[in-house]
Amino acid sequence: MRKKIFTTAVVGAAALMAGTLVTLPTASADTLPDEKQCKKAAKTADNVIKGWCVAITRRKGNCLACHGVTTKARWPETLAPGGNMGPPLVAMKQRFPDKVKLRAQIHDATVANPQSVMPPFGKNQLLSGKEIDLIVEWLQTI
Amino acid sequence: MQKPVLMLFALTLLCGSSAMVWAVQDPKVKKEIAEYQAYFKKRFPTVGLSDYSDGVNALPQYAERRANWELLMEFPPYEADMDKARALWNKPMKSGKALASCFSRPATKYPYYSNEAKEIRTIEMDLNDCLKKNGEEPIKNLKHGKVALLVAAFREQYNGQTWNVDVDSPGAVAAYEAGKKFYWTKRGQLNFSCANCHVHSAGNKLRGDVLSAGLGHTTGFPVYRTKWALKGKPWGTVHRRYGGCNKQVRAKPFKPQSEQYRALEFYEAALSTGVPLKVPSQRQ
């Protein structure tokens, strides 16, 4: 009898631990990848995550240098919040219902606003056309 | 009762400063400097003109990190090197003369336009001329090391005195205009002008870093910089910093003491007319 309780407890504890182990990857799936994790994730992830990865990588979009971002998915702990040299990236789908306009803005923001200090990512070949498309895909989700 | 006294005090200060400060003779230049300084007064109302000696540390956006800087300043990391710098400055040259014998112009009036040489002259240039004239080898590296220490040893003697460069001849005005053009022109793959960051976005954050105000730029140079210390070369001249800035916007940097950087240094010094020198400075 005693033994049975002990066994149950052990099994239960093991199950609990296993449960925790099982839930961990699920939890991290809700968290966005940081710059380091992006190196791997960018290969297998969907276009939205790929776009996020282009956006946060310093040698790519480096959007966070100037823009603060509010994401629905959990922000990675290892990633510093964005700057405020540019306007915050919020409600992008509402602000840019037309993907073409959003794309043009990243390509060269000075066309729509000559005063803009945003680097012309497409025009100056800081990003490829494909990379800009991916950023647009991600921006449509926030 | 107190108000008129205060006003009188303010008036005395104003008159005093305008009499002392304006070595800038050109009326258009004078107006531009006043407008530039008024912009920062409006952008950072709590920051006084002399506070800009402290660089980014003076900005309210930097307040939460200022305590760290003040703590660091209790035992400044540059002090040991400054003892070395002063010894270097005072060491007689092969001719027996001291470096000071070549410098009749105060540090607050550098850079200056030389009517004889028909160009902007910097402390670094006069320093190397002095060394050559007195049988010494000129300094080759104009970005870091010995040159920065010697310039710091010269400039620190004028700490507390205000920037006061002369923009009073056609040549000086032309150099000022060249520096202005450099300052406001977008460059590099990232397409930023100096002003985009240090005027329009001063005090804003680039990730965690606060962008310094253009006003007061170069006042504390040469600087002892934490970022440079990590690479083993903590000291840098203004032109080393300019090169770094140009690289950051992915533009090809110009050479230290190039015509472009000297004009820029002259322009920035003119804009900071009235800001007291504070040399050396620690920057992050």
Tell me briefly what this model is:
The complex is a heterodimer of chains A (142) and B (284). Chain A has 142 residues and is mostly helical.
Number of strands of chain A: 0
Q: In percent terms, what proportion of residues of chain B is strand?
A: 5-15%
Secondary structure tally, helices of chain B? 11
- CATH secondary-structure class of chain B: Mainly Alpha
Series of H and E elements of chain B: HHHHEEHHHHEEEHEHHE
**Total separate domains of chain A:** 2
* CATH architect. name of chain B: Orthogonal Bundle
- Side by side, the strands of the main sheet of chain B go 6-5-7
- Secondary-structure element sequence of chain A? HHHHHH
Structure description:
The complex is a heterodimer of chains A (142) and B (284). Chain A contains six helices and no strands. Chain A folds into two domains: 1-30; 32-139, Orthogonal Bundle (Cytochrome Bc1 Complex, Chain D, domain 2), CATH 1.10.760. Chain A is mostly helical and 142 residues long. Mean pLDDT of chain A is 84; it is low at 10-28. Chain A has helices at 2-30, 35-44, 47-56, 92-95, 99-107, 129-139. Chain B has a single domain (23-284), classed as Cytochrome Bc1 Complex, Chain D, domain 2, CATH 1.10.760. In chain B, helix 4 crosses helix 6. Chain B is globular. The A-B interface holds A 64-66, 80-85, 117, 119-120, 124-126 and B 189-192, 196-197, 200-201, 204-209, 211.
Please give the structural blueprint.
The complex is a heterodimer of chains A (142) and B (284).
Chain A: H1 2-30, H2 35-44, H3 47-56, H4 92-95, H5 99-107, H6 129-139
Helix pairs in contact in A: 2-3, 3-6, 5-6
Chain B: H1 2-21, H2 27-43, H3 63-72, H4 79-90, E1 112-114, E2 119-121, H5 123-133, H6 146-155, H7 170-184, H8 194-200, E3 205-206, E4 209-210, E5 223-225, H9 226-229, E6 235-236, H10 238-248, H11 259-271, E7 281-283
Parallel strand pairs in B: 5-7
Antiparallel strand pairs in B: 1-2, 3-4, 5-6
Helix pairs in contact in B: 4-6, 7-11
